[in-house]
Amino acid sequence: MQVLNPATEEVICEVPLATTDDAERALSAADSAFRAWARTPPIERAKFMLAIADGIRDRADELARLVTAEEGKPITEARGEVAGAADFFSYYAGLARSIEGEILASDIADEELWIRRVPHGVVAAIIPWNYPSALTARKIAPAILAGNTVVLKPHEDTPLSALAIGEVIAEVGVPPGVVNIVTGPGETVGAALASSQTTNLVTMTGSVEAGRAVLHSAAENITQVSLELGGKAPFIVLDDADLDVAVRSAVTSRYMNCGQVCISNERTYVHRSVYNEFLERYVECVSELRVGDPTSESTDVGPKVNRQELEKVTSMVDDARSAGANVLIGGRVLTDDEFARGYWYEPTVLTNVDHSMEIMHREIFGPVTPIMPFDEWNSVIELANDSTYGLSAYLFTNDFQRIMRAVNDVRFGELYINRIGPEALQAFHIGYRQSGIGGDDGKHGLDIYLQPQTIYANFSGHAMNHLMPYGEPGLEERGAVERS
Ligand code: NAD
Fold it and tell me: Which residues line ligand 1 (CB under 6 A)?
């Protein structure tokens, strides 16, 4: 498979186009490595992970350049991403002594009931292109700390960051088979990983469509699935908000990584009393964004990742325009001079949009903000919640009552109040509705990679009375009568 630089369309290099047989071989390697890795104490696994974090930090500059080359995000952002990738390994290494179970009293003398938390076995991890190094780490770190082995499939457009992190993992001496990386298409290699009998857990980040396909594939063997899918985050600005903070936050949340972030500001709602002023400042801020060569230190917005993505954004803006939207700024594919090659779209702001338009419902995943005014709290909350997506939402206000209403009324997995992302390592990245099932990060993210195992530990030396397997009949009822 050729890997293209989205800023220049040059071929960076070629990587193997894996087959479904390769996927099976990788799974089988992971399966063979599992028992020994699961027996390795977590603190020993954590030592490898700290070494991986150090290895990533040592190669941070090279890794950041790789992210920029294959994905197109500005180098300044790529450095942050790579630092985040290292942090996933060191953060999860820090949880090595936090894997706990429970002990329950038994109904039987000389017996204990243990609920242990054990690794699943082989984890298939499937990731998208928008954070190729951070998402590699976000999947591998908790999976291997928990004692699983992993087969990771990066997106076909951006396999290089994962392969480079794979090199670091091999260099620090992680035993062969614990982490495997296969490069290939989702429809073949991804589906093979999700449907294989060897896979015990599938964790996938990507689009709703591919998530649905992964669920279908995993249904083959009733394999557990965790999905982090798309978003359509509402960004709500109330009349008392600090407009300067709100504008800068809304712009950053929309245009970073060229709008290709699952928690991006996808639709902006501004209270009518401050709408005009917000809009004026917003457009001014967007007009100052520097679009161009992502390797330059002064670039704010790079190219879209590939031609299909560019075409999708173009057609969504064209459709919105036909439906009556005004293009206040942008609205064009860039093709002049330095943009002659690559997938460039102008930072765009749309007004005169309403809830009936597709642009307010479908994920844009590009540098385009639809903005609309609202009059009432209830109506904006209804608009915000009326989405098939339920990942992130934003609220900008200093009104305590409104904040608490939002905490209760906004039906999204994450609510950011007076701030934007990125997500925190120790929090829990979780989407409602079609934005996913399961989640990533923090101790709840680690839980996804562990499964309960119940042990009945009897040391009485007596056979059980199998006529009364659930204890003395009537005990519960008698207790109830005595209590009453
Ligand atoms: P995508 O769904 O096209 O691809 C994601 C991965 O799934 C790729 O590795 C792809 O090869 C694989 N895949 C595709 N079809 C498959 C199939 N039938 N079976 C198995 N695997 C298959 O997504 P994308 O375009 O790479 O990424 C953009 C999407 O990812 C957006 O919707 C974005 O919101 C979402 N995303 C979500 C999060 C999150 O944490 N919720 C984070 C980043 C991106």
Answer: 126-130, 153, 155-156, 185-187, 190-191, 194, 205-207, 210, 213-214, 217, 228-231, 262, 363, 365, 391, 429, 431, 436
